[in-house]
Amino acid sequence: MKSKQYTLISIEGNIGSGKSTLLRLMQQKYPDLRFIAEPVNEWQSINGDPTLNLLGSFYEEPSRWAYTMQVYAFYSRLKHWKEVLSDPLNPEDRHCILSERSIEADKEIFAVNGHKNGMINKLEFALYEKFYELALLMNCQMIIYLQVDPDVCFSRMQKRARDEEKNTISKEYLTQIHDRHEEWLLRETHQNTSILVLNGDKEFESDLVQQNKMFNAIDQFLQ
Ligand code: DGT
Question: Residue 39: which of 94, 1, 83 has the closest Cα?
């Protein structure tokens, strides 16, 4: 499903790093790009039913729900990509699709982390990898990595206070997720993928100097 028509770009980074903010700012700055927001609200209420809260179940009982969460995250991301890729392109649009996270991140960050710390067992991980192989063609060609200190992510996460996360996500978990990003994105071999690392420790939503610095780097990267 990798389209010759499009370059696939994803924004990656820890929970609470500011990916949604960056995506929103990029939407304003580049109206000729296509965007895929993250399907978090779908995970919070399956079939629109808030009593079927997969994200909440995962954080309450990670070992029970980690595999199910990965399978559903895979399904919902693939569904969104398919919808966007099958929508005809306007000739004046830039041939790029920008998404918050990616199927690859779900694997490299959350599935690998869950497997490492025992939330996803060997059998579940082997099954998950079967699904993942089906989606290999969807790998992004460009990645913007918003690199943020886990302590900063923790305080941003507490400020936004998403119900499922506020009493369940520890600094230790954010440090694990940070480490998985670093292992995945800073390793030396990345075939056919360009990676831009942006430091997002400083506030960039309201600080225009900081924001301009980021956009100078992004402008160059997208050229
Ligand atoms: P931001 O804008 O950088 O603050 O990012 P968030 O926190 O809005 O978005 P993100 O992608 O870091 O994750 C939203 C929630 O969903 C968060 O609690 C982590 C969780 N999540 C995302 N993808 C996966 C996944 O594949 N597996 C698991 N277990 N959790 C995931």
Answer: 83
* pLDDT tens digit sequence for 147-189: 999 999 999 999 988 899 988 999 999 999 999 999 999 986 7
Check pocket membership of 165 for ligand 1, CB cut-off 6 A.
Answer: yes
Distance 28 CA to ligand 1 centre (A): 22
The pTM assigned to this predicted structure is: 0.93
Indicate whether residue 101 lines ligand 1 (CB < 6 A): yes
CATH topology for 7-222 is: Rossmann fold (3.40.50)
Distance from residue 100's CA to the centre of ligand 1 (Å): 9
**ipTM computed for the complex:** 0.96
Task: Give dist(CA 174, CA 180) in Å, integer.
Answer: 10
